[in-house]
Amino acid sequence: MKRAVYACLWIFLVSTLTCALPKPSSKKSQQNEPVQQSKTTIEGLVRDIACPIQNPAATATKFNMKCALDCAKQGSPLIVLTNDGEMYFPISDSMPDIDQRQKLIPFVGKYVRITGTVFERKGTRAIAIGSIKEMKSVHLITNAE
To answer: What are phi and psi of 76, to 5 degrees?
Structure first.
């Protein structure tokens, strides 16, 4: 009888520990998850990252120009904010990455069309800028609070 009880306890412990341990294959598959990339064109506002993160009312066409310029001048990272609220981080198409700030500074506070390669990983988006052009026909409200 004692042997049956010990055998049941042993089976219970082994099965509990086996279920509780992390699966090595799941960790490995997360590390090797492929980065999605595609050539595409995006449209949006070039601006600092801080305001759209902290102020959900800021959009790609309604924002505070002074704030965006001040933040950019202070070194805040620059992004492209699309009409649907997606944010794209500018990157170069080379490794090691080359700073894209000088390319984007003239476009801060402007609505642009960018063609390039988009990379996506776990919800984060980046774009390697091939070409960038201001879309002057897009109406911007630049005095939002």
So the answer is: -60, 140
Q: Which residues contact 51 (CB under 8 A, 6 or more apart)?
A: 58, 63, 64, 67, 68, 71
The two tokens of residue 25 are: 């294959």
Tell me the per-residue pLDDT of 86-139, one tens digit each, with 9 for 90 and over: 999 999 999 999 999 999 999 999 999 999 999 999 999 999 999 999 999 999
Nearest to 66 by CA among 111, 109, 101: 109
Answer yes or no: pTM beyond 0.90.
no
Q: Three-state SS for 50?
A: helix
Helix (H) or strand (E) holding 61: none
Rounding to the nearest 10 degrees, give the CA dihedral for residues 129, 133, 135, 136: 140
* DSSP-derived pairing of the beta strands 78-81 and 124-134: unpaired
The secondary structure element, H or E, covering residue 123 is: none
